[in-house]
Design a protein that fits this description.
Helix content is 0%, strand content 61%. The protein has strands spanning 3-9, 15-21, 24-31, 40-43, 46-51, 57-64, 67-75, 81-87, 92-97, 102-108, 114-122, 130-135, 141-146, 151-158, 164-172, 179-184, 189-194, 199-206, 209-217, 230-236, 242-248, 252-258, 263-270, 276-281, 287-292, 297-303, 310-317, 321-326. The chain is globular and about 55 Å long. The chain is built from no helices and 28 strands.
């Protein structure tokens, strides 16, 4: 069965939509007339994407019969937005602004368009760089990663008598590790990939408090960190048995088995391109796709159902891909 994917990118040619079937992509359509539509998220019939410029914007679209119609655009009230997440229960859109170290929350209107700003916070001037924002498993907390100050903040989400966020705890990583993105597992653990130190920090979050559990290198013992290596994307499968991370520089995808007290590195495979900016599963999880921003291509891997390892199936040329979104 064919699946539809949208590809966020740093080109000026809009957002490509691709049909995907049996490990192969085919062109379908293009929507949006914005440059630097670098990160996308959707909920059923609606899609949202950031416009990563110094006067940051976010855009909303309605999806019907695989066609996209524009709803509205609005300012993120920050510079260079780089990530967003959606609270479908409360109908709130959260946006991380990288350049000025701020984040925003917006109401989603009943027609799917972006409504009024509900919250705005700016961290340390000229130091903070908010790189990632996501919800907890119970949907009651918001996690905000500040790459610039090497911190992750946890907020409780309050809606009574009005919407508000309260920072309940902050975890500080070692200096210049540069935490970037995270995934959550079913045991309330948070796995955070670091950009500069090329590690995965595993934390617990219980009773509104972070605790450090362990950390894991992206390298086998036979490999060493080279100049230019940076950790990038991190994803977890639905069964929470395997974790995948991309490494720029040596241009690898690292596959980990998730165990009780550690992550066991079982494979490092070439991304078959350069600058692996994002990785994502298709809906069946039979395939994993890597967006290679530096080499203008997508790499499609089959995923072994037995041990989670990857095998290259095909590649697809596309300009400056940065985000892979199955619709």
């Amino acid at each position: 069965m064919k699946q539809l994917f949208c590809i966020g990118n740093y080109s000026s040619k809009g957002i490509p939509c691709l049909n995907f079937d049996k490990g192969v992509f085919e062109p379908f359509s293009i929507f949006s007339d914005n440059s630097n539509s670098s990160y996308l998220i959707n909920n059923k019939d609606f899609l949202y994407h950031i416009i990563e410029t110094s006067d940051g914007m976010v855009a909303s679209y309605h999806i019907k019969n695989s066609l996209f119609s524009s709803l509205n655009h609005c300012s993120t009230y920050g510079k260079c937005p780089c990530h967003l997440t959606l609270d479908t229960t409360r109908k709130i859109l959260y946006i991380a602004n990288y350049e000025d170290g701020s984040f925003s929350a917006f109401k989603i209107n009943s027609n799917g368009s972006i409504g009024n700003q509900l919250y705005f916070e700016k961290f340390e001037k000229d130091v903070s760089h908010i790189h990632f924002i996501s919800l907890s498993q119970d949907n009651n907390h918001l996690f905000v990663i500040d790459l610039g100050t090497n911190k992750i903040h946890a907020y409780t989400i309050n809606t009574i008598p009005y919407f508000n966020l309260h920072c309940c705890d902050t975890f500080s990583f070692p200096h210049d590790t540069q935490p970037r993105h995270l995934v959550l597992d079913l045991k309330d653990r948070i796995h955070v990939i670091t950009e500069n130190s090329c590690e995965i920090y595993t934390l617990s979050f219980k009773n509104d408090t972070f605790s450090f559990l362990f950390k894991t290198s992206l390298f086998y013992n036979s490999l060493q960190k080279l100049e230019g290596d940076t950790g990038c994307a991190i994803k977890i499968n639905k069964n929470h048995t395997f974790l995948y991370a991309s490494l720029r520089g040596q241009n690898l995808i690292c596959v980990f088995e998730i165990l009780e007290n550690k992550l066991n590195l079982i494979q490092s495979i070439s991304c078959y391109g350069s600058m692996p900016r994002d990785i994502s599963f298709d809906k069946t999880e039979k395939y994993l796709i890597c967006a290679n921003q530096g080499s203008d291509n997508l790499s499609i891997f089959s995923v072994s159902p037995k041990d989670g390892k990857l095998l290259l199936e095909s590649t697809y040329s596309i300009e400056k891909p940065s985000c892979i979104l199955p619709i």
